[in-house]
From TrEMBL:
Cofactor: Mg(2+); Zn(2+)
Leading EC class: hydrolase
Protein name per its UniProtKB record: NAD(+) diphosphatase
CDD domains recorded: NUDIX_NADH_pyrophosphatase_Nudt13
GO molecular function, one term: metal ion binding
Keywords assigned: Hydrolase, Magnesium, Metal-binding, NAD
Location of the region described as Disordered in the Swiss-Prot/TrEMBL record: 1-26
Gene3D superfamilies named among the record's database cross-references: 3.90.79.20, Nucleoside Triphosphate Pyrophosphohydrolase
Family the UniProt entry places it in: Belongs to the Nudix hydrolase family. NudC subfamily.
Catalytic reaction(s) noted: a 5'-end NAD(+)-phospho-ribonucleoside in mRNA + H2O = a 5'-end phospho-adenosine-phospho-ribonucleoside in mRNA + beta-nicotinamide D-ribonucleotide + 2 H(+)
Amino acid sequence: MTARSESEEIDFGRAASGGGFQLDSSPLLARSPVELSDAQRDDPETAAELWRDGRVLLVDEYGRTPVDAEGSLAWTGPGGSGSGTNVVLLGMYRGRARWGVRASARDSELLWSDLRVLGDWLGDAEAGLFATAVGLLAWHDRARYCALCGAGTERIRSGWARRCGGCWHEEYPRTDPSMICLVHDGADRVLLGRKAGWPDERFSVLAGFVEMGESLEGCVRREVREEVGVEVSDIRYLGSQPWPFPRSLMVGFAAVADPDAPLHPADGEIAEAHWVSRERVRRALEADAPVHGMRLPPGISIAHRMLRGWAFG
């Protein structure tokens, strides 16, 4: 087994100094100024006080929340004691505690919408609060039983942990790292793929989950090789973004590949992959409809920020 050369490693220094293109701006879901201290999570009396004067964001099982007539988040007043199993403390915003509560959109006359639709219209704080509520409540839905002994678990720390009622083991919310990589040819073409099951016109950069024992840059090499059959070099870090669908952290990279190498889309995973010109990407990013049969990711995603940085950088 040979040692990896320095040129194969992720070049953080080059990224930080501006070598090559960068994200055109910080990803929306990475900008949240909301903070939450351990004291606010852990002290039952503090949590109860924060609940009484707080505001509540309802989130259904599909990650949707009610919106008002202007398309803003429809925060509501608290009800009950705030100690239910489907209640999580999100943070402080505009002088009030913000809570997320699992609710049902059934039998509701309100308009419910999800983060992908609302993301571009929300401010940094509300987008971050909504993302936290979606991810944290989804984790609670899947963590009701202890992974060690199988007994039921209960919500603690204002929703930021669960404790087993059998062995007292504590579990904390999981975040699954995933790489997302803009592969380009070093000049004016970028490699885009369409996942199996996506609409015919929807394309994006390549992405995949990090496997056990794997580095981030190792994941970049493996996923690109597996998804389209090409090798990459010059891997550079670009930025990161929480992605609560249901609980990922998207870590963005750029890498270079040979555009003359044959593409082999992974059967059952990638429906098609193509090298696309910079000008075509620019037109698609600026359009509200598909351009020449291609629609790119929405502004809420780090993929959009990566493509804009490459296309207009």
